What does this fold into?
Amino acid sequence: MQFTVDSGGAGRRLDHWLHDRLPQYSRARIQEWIKAGRAQVNGANGRASYTLRAGDAVDLEPAELAPLKARPEAIPLRVLYEDDAVIAIDKPAGMVVHAGAGVHSGTLVNALLHRFDSLSQLGGDLRPGIVHRLDCHTSGVLLVAKNDAAHQELARQFSSREVEKIYLALVQGIVKNDTGRIERPIARDPVRRTRMTARLGHGRAAWSEYRVLRRYAKSTLLEVRIGTGRTHQIRVHLSSIGHPVVGDTLYGAQAQPALGGRFFLHAHRVRFHSPATGKEVVVESPLPAELTDFAG
It folds into this structure.
């Protein structure tokens, strides 16, 4: 496959740019091909993080896709909604969405493969059906596509910001304003690579809006709406204004043993249009018991 980078692709990473042009392959698959020397930029082997320039010539030689690596596992799942195109799962905290970084079993994908006969394959061999993700220690509503057409339509709705995503977050400290908007770009922390940061002044555009639901003696319960879905977005944004999510030690919060290793962030409600019917669907997940007990 041969491509020429136009002005719109200038400044983007090679792996991200290729994934946009080849959405039928997962980003992980494209990164594997780049690492194996199957992607060249101007005749030389490219790196996934290479910053493209207008006019760059990109050649990609896809390899044969390996068989699906994820295996079915009999793991309980709570289904909040299902139709012919989409499944809404109530993901518990502590469950990883798909394999990666040394995790090969016990994931949501393993459970999905055991429970459902058909899932979209656009996410690649490790992420069948997965349209978006939640952090391991975040609970709540997560949408899964049953087929490729549904996956493409849901991805379009997420990309065009037609999907409403509402979270509940308990944060450290007393938030003064009843409402607020945080609009800061998010980038990988150059020092601690497991973190993201909103303090560099550059990165991927991101915005989050919050509304105070209740103030406690030393914490505040917020309803948070996000218009973008960057990695760790809510955690990063709330930490950047001095109110990290309770229990989120990665972003500066105090440890909370009573939370059992998780932090207080829950994907409470998702509003979208079903690819099967075109009708608006609202799916809600109540706060799990460990969060209700802690807040109470």
Remarks:
- The domain at 2-60 is CATH 3.10.290.10 (Structural Genomics Hypothetical 15.5 Kd Protein In mrcA-pckA Intergenic Region; Chain A).
- The helical segments are 14-21, 27-35, 108-115, 148-159, 233-240, 289-295.
